[in-house]
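ugh ok fine here u go
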Amino acid sequence: MSLFKAVWTNSISRAFGKFASTEFPPVIQMVINYAYVKMMGVDLSAFEDIDHYKSLNALFTRKLIYKRDLTSDPNAFISPADSMVTAEGEVKDAKALQIKGFDYSVKELLTEHFEPDVIAPIEHGKYINFYLSPKDYHRYHVPIDMKVLRAVHVPGLLYPVNLKYLHKVPSLFVKNERVILECVDNANQLFFIVLIGALNVGKMTLSFDDRIQTNVEGAEVKVYDYENVTLKRGDELGMFMMGSTIVLLFEEGFVELVENLEGRKVRFGDVVAYRRNG
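structure:
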């Protein structure tokens, strides 16, 4: 995809977002909803019936009606979303993989809006990438009891983040719009949650701060610092308006990843890592 075409994905995504948020007359909306569910293979067994959703966006961002069973192990990191793990492993030479054969700089991903001594522990840490497809549950959750120290909103392009484009576009995660959360656990160990926008992601939200507005014209990088944002594992963190990707980056020595998750589907609540020094 050329840069010209890539820039157009932002306009396309904003237009799609307007369409998806429109509440059409009930008969038309039912046709839209049924077509989407059938085309994408959406499983609504844990959600409200299809006629409950008054817009396509309401269907995208549907809430679970049954609580997920979460582990009681205080040292467990859970998957923040229903998704597929596209890559996981060690950050080597300050680079992580978006997919096998395609790496990116964690410094560039996190930007200069985090001090070098903050990023340094990540440069030899570990990472997990979670890809949410259009059929997945689009809300994301807190992976472990944590405190949010800083959020940085980085406007950017909106390349698709499916497997085809992960194998096609170098440093795709660095090019795309993203919201970066600097977090610590209750032992003050550092990790980042990076929410990455994608084609047709009209918006990414954070449950604790509605000032962050993504995919808007003329947006500039903005930094938000927090003192008292404490969240519990399993709490709702926000939502994507369509499929996208979440990256977890851990400081060196912090966690052991659950092995052999790459290429596998995981559900919000599944254990994906354990603290080593819990």
